[in-house]
Amino acid sequence: MSYLPIQQLLKTAPVGTEVTVKGWVRTKRESKNAIFIALNDGSTINNIQVVAEAGQLTEETLKLITTGACLAVTGELVESQGAGQAVEVKISNVHIYGTADPDKYPLQPKRHSLEFLREIAHLRPRTNTFSAILRIRHALAFAVHKYFNDNGFYYLNTPIITASDAEGAGEMFRVTTLDAIKPPLTEEGKVDYAQDFFGRETNLTVSGQLEGELGALALGKIYTFGPTFRAENSNTTRHLAEFWMIEPEMAFFELEDNMNLAEDFVKTVIRYALQHCADDLAFLDNRLKEEEKTKKKEEQSELGLLEKLQFVISNEFVRLTYTEAIDILVNSKPAKKGQFQYEVSWGVDLQSEHERYLVEKHFRKPVILTNYPREIKAFYMKQDEDSSASPGPTVRAMDVLFPGIGEIIGGSQREDNLDKLVARMQEVGIDPETIWWYLDTRRFGSAPHAGFGLGFERLVLFVTGMGNIRDVIPFPRAPKTAEF
Ligand code: ATP
Ligand code: MN
Q1: In sequence order, what are the beta bridge partners of 263?
Q2: Interior CA angle at 237 toward 235 and 239, to 5°?
Q3: How many other β-carbons are positioned within 10 Å of the β-carbon of residue 228?
């Protein structure tokens, strides 16, 4: 039989046939009668064991078969004598593609810290943990496209280079071809972006939403799924400078429809991962259990990874208003004992400690918070007609909060009334002229519509049970981190 990835071989190759496997050596073990090599080719978390009889391979060959070396092995697939694997390959021929000097190769068959692995991000996909994460990441990305395709959404590619910071979502990375040392200046002595590549100031996008809305008001239901950039200097475990965002936007959807979609979407893609990544999730579940054992009893989480994922897909998310949430928080134990780092009262932007209290301590379920104060949300969110139940004006916003993470989704129904939208822009100091094209959607054939943004890495973080967002993207970009 010709070469098969190990994942396929383990599923389909019949015992007794000749197979060729190719991959990297994970471990080599010598007993009196035989030599056992565990090979992995990245197609699955499972290794294939290849076995040579003692004396079959020359000393010279054996010396080159070390952890990290790349081999092609041909031989008969047989039932395994030992425990731990059903089948193994009886070596008839070995070819060494590339060696890995054991004195220099940084990955050795022992547990490396995640911090150390971040320093060798170019090699960490060869570890069990990272290959599992990357395969799950792939499955989730595929599930995202599948979900939207199955539900009548069109994939809209919004620009990565933009001229607007209308969102005000944070600090942006400038895109320019001007000379950094001696840029052309205007008469007032400012940098003259009229002479720049695009003839104006441009940045990397912080969100595809505004263009997404243009798409929704033409195609009905669209989604974006692309790289997003934020130059916020936050060295947290939940923020990257470059991340992937999924932003569906739907004509004729109101806040309630938006929440229903968000909940169904997240559950569906998690279910997909559970169905298609069973081995990798079992591995990570186990890894997490080991890690939990090293923690103090009271810091250990009650649910394992698989239990947590099952729990999320089989329970309804709790829905409540921001105003109701503030009530809960103000009357909570940590607030009364002064244990929150940031104080809570109506009108403040919730910190992740507050979000996590609601999700992890109070409700013990994912939560969707709605109807936030107008002042802490973006200008384009639809203003509530009636805010009499709350101390101030609110907008039709919704944030989905997850255990261990806090905000995973932020969204809203959009203001579709031109006058209200323009008035709000003026209040917050955005010149309506700068996004005249966005306002045209409200001038011509305006319609109720809604959408949200899901940070893809936050989803991967949740599904893999990892603790740091830098460990769920192959090559993280964060402050002072852009080597690989
Ligand atoms: P946060 O308050 O957590 O910083 P945000 O409110 O600034 O997030 P939004 O502008 O609402 O974020 O973006 C939508 C989604 O994008 C968030 O819910 C989150 O999942 C994700 N996201 C935002 N900023 C980042 C980041 N720096 N790195 C990774 N994901 C992010
Ligand atoms: Mn948000």
Answers
A1: none
A2: 65
A3: 24
Rounded to an integer, what distance in angstroms lies between the CA atom of residue 315 and that of residue 307?
Answer: 12
The pair of structure tokens assigned to 332 is 């909570």
Three-point CA angle 179, 185, 187, nearest 5°: 175
User: Is pLDDT above 70 for 168?
Assistant: no
Convert the pLDDT of each residue in 342-361 to its tens digit.
Answer: 999 999 999 989 999 999 99
Structure confidence by residue, pLDDT tens digits, 387-436: 888 999 999 999 999 998 999 999 999 999 999 999 999 999 999 999 99
Judge whether 375 and 392 are in contact, CB under 8 Å: yes
Atom number in ligand 1 closest to CA 400:
18
Output the CA–CA distances (angstroms, integers) from residue 433 to 102, 289, 418, 426, in the order listed. 63, 55, 13, 11
Count other C-beta atoms under 10 Å from residue 311's C-beta: 14
Cross-strand bridge partners of residue 395 = 372, 383
Q: What pLDDT, on the 0 to 100 scale, is given for residue 54?
A: 94
Calculate the CA 57 to chain-centre distance.
45
Q: Is 169 in the pocket of ligand 1 (CB under 6 A)?
A: yes
Residue nearest ligand 1's atom 21 by CA: 455
Amino acid symbol at 74: T
pLDDT of residue 1: 46
**Is the pLDDT score of 308 beyond 90?**
yes
